[in-house]
Amino acid sequence: MFVVLPTVVAMVYYGLIAADRFVSQSEFVLRSVGAADASGISAMIASQTGGAVSSGLSIGGDRDAQAVATYIASHDGMAVVDRALDLRKVFSRSEADFVARFPGPVSKDTNYALYRYYERMVSVSYDPTTSVIKLSTEAFRPEDAKAIGEALIASAEAIVNRMDLRARQDAIRAAQEQVDAARNQVVTAQHNLTAFRLREKMVDPVKMSGVILASISQLVSQSVALKAQLSDLRKNAPTNQQAGVLQNQIASIEEQIAAEQRKLTGPDGSMSPILAEYAQLSLQSEFANRIYAASLDQLETARAEAARQRAFIERISGPTLADDSTQPKRTLMVLLIFAVSLSAWSILRFIVRDSRAHHGR
Hints:
The chain is of the alpha+beta class. The chain has eleven helices and four strands; from the N terminus they run H-E-H-H-H-H-H-E-E-H-H-H-H-E-H. It has helices spanning about 5-15, 40-50, 60-70, 75-85, 85-90, 110-120, 140-200, 205-235, 240-265, 270-310, 330-360, and strands at about 20-35, 120-125, 130-140, 310-315.
């Protein structure tokens, strides 16, 4: 009962009843073309705007390949193939035996049952050392196995394209956010500069200070010239009354020089704090304009990269069209059932013998 009967049943089923299953093999890798380069100006923009610099639009890493492999083995992957090929029809061909076909003698015709059957007929694995995804599909006809493999690879390519499109859209959106942030900085800097000019009632304090310095320079020149005349007059005509006039002119000019100097560096109402504030506002405005121009360049670069970015699946082999069935492995299955039955019989025999010996005492 435990050895002969299961072995005979297995020999009858796998020798006379079990239908041939054909296997289609496929191997492919993820490839990408082009990648955005994080340049120094991009890093500067990101640091000023709080944005993140995109390191590239390429996909094809381990996580992406594993995601593709997981998708192929998922219910969604099965659903795409089911819509394309009608898996219920494929898995219930006339060539299939009553045990192996879908639905089986004890299973129901539900989506969940179809997915569990799909898991047995489709196998996918990813090798991180070679970055190769291996796909194996089974069916009762070789063209069906190949069609399932083709449909799964086409579905995986669609997933890769969606992933790549999302990456490109994210890169453009990040660049656009940087442009918007830089534009806001430009508007704020210009608003602050305009408010300063209205408050101080001067367009350019630097030019105004230049006018004051030019006036001081002119007054100093006049003072030096008058002092020279006064010195000559005292040497040549000490009693000349013109000396008093020259002294008054020199004093008046020196008072004007002192007044002009107080405008630049005096304690009250001088130009020094105004110049310092204006220099800071001007620097902020200039830097904001440069950031804005650089962010516009970055946006155009992101758009250009997105336009030429391509991610795709590169096939190494397959899906193959099998010319002979490799499943089920009839001899191996019969030997396996024989070994399991023999092990079960040996264990039961040991238990019975031990029980008899125990009760014999």
